[in-house]
Amino acid sequence: EGERQPLDGTYRMQLFERNRLELHPQNPAPYDVLLGRLGDDRLRQLGIDWQTLSKANPSDPHYFPQTGQAISFEPFWQYWRSHGLELGDRGISERESLALFGYPISPARMETNSSGDTVLTQWFERARFEWHPNNPEPYKVLLGLLGREVHDARPPLPVDPPAEQCAGVPPLPPEVRSWDQDTIVCLYPYQ
Fold first, then answer.
1. Rounded to whole angstroms, how far apart are CA atoms 89 and 108?
2. Cα–Cα dist 18/148, whole Å
3. Per-residue confidence of the chain (191 residues) as pLDDT tens digits?
4. SS (H, E, C) the chain
5. What residues pair up with 110 in beta bridges, in sequence order?
6. 131 contact partners, CB below 8 Å, separation of at least 6
7. What is the pTM of this model?
8. Burial (Cβ within 10 Å: 0-12, 13-18, ≥19) of residue 122
9. How far is CA 184 from CA 41, 92, 132, 179, in A?
10. CA atoms of 21 and 176, how far apart (whole Å)
11. Does a cis peptide bond (omega within 30 degrees of 0) precede residue 30?
12. Cβ pair 102, 95 in contact under 8 A
């Protein structure tokens, strides 16, 4: 993640098994805490430029011109449409699903995940959907362990980031510093 230049300074983040929360105090609520773009980040770590992947046909169901991809595999579409961040819309809206997962950035294709399972996979800006047909409902569509994979693939971070990188960002409170902060909680250049 460190290859890109910071866009607006630094932000505090916490990495989870399947996602990353980022604190952006300069943004108005509810956009002051954002989900990281771990799908995009992980593909870049793997050396894959999703913009060069084959594109969907614009006539495919659930096509998104923003990325040239579609969510054509019906179980993935049902999962995407039935989950989202609560933004106050009636039911789960497309904008709430977009806020949680982002746009699709790859076609659905067979891949081997970090657990060694070869499964139908589709990448999104903030997630990776995996199809596990032998699992019971509602566990046939699972989210990839992107937080863990992004974390495990990067070099360890220093316990205290350089002072110039942290200018204007309050230090982590003692109760957070007692965690494994060099791998879980840290200041990180905005990506």
1. 29
2. 7
3. 322 233 455 678 888 999 988 888 888 988 888 899 999 999 999 999 999 999 999 999 999 999 999 999 999 999 999 999 988 999 999 999 999 999 999 999 999 998 899 999 999 999 999 999 999 999 999 999 999 998 888 765 445 555 555 555 555 554 443 333 333 333 444 33
4. CCCCCCCCCEEEEEECCCCEEEECCCCCCCCCEEECCHHHHHHHHCCCCHHHCCCCCCCCCCEECCCCEECCCHHHHHHHHCCCCCCCCCCCCHHHHHHHHCCECCCCEEEECCCCCEEEEEEECCEEEEECCCCCCCCCEEECCHHHHHHHHCCCCCCCCCHHHHCCCCCCCHHHHCCCCCCCEEEEECC
5. 120
6. 73, 75, 76, 108, 119, 120, 121, 140, 141
7. 0.77
8. buried
9. 17, 31, 28, 8
10. 15
11. yes
12. no
Which two structure tokens, joined as six digits, stand for 39?
């799908």
- Name the residue type at position 62: H
| Residue linked to tokens 């990495």 | 15
Strand duo 141-143 + 185-189: pairing? unpaired
Tokens of 53: 């992947």
- Omega before 138 cis (within 30°)? yes
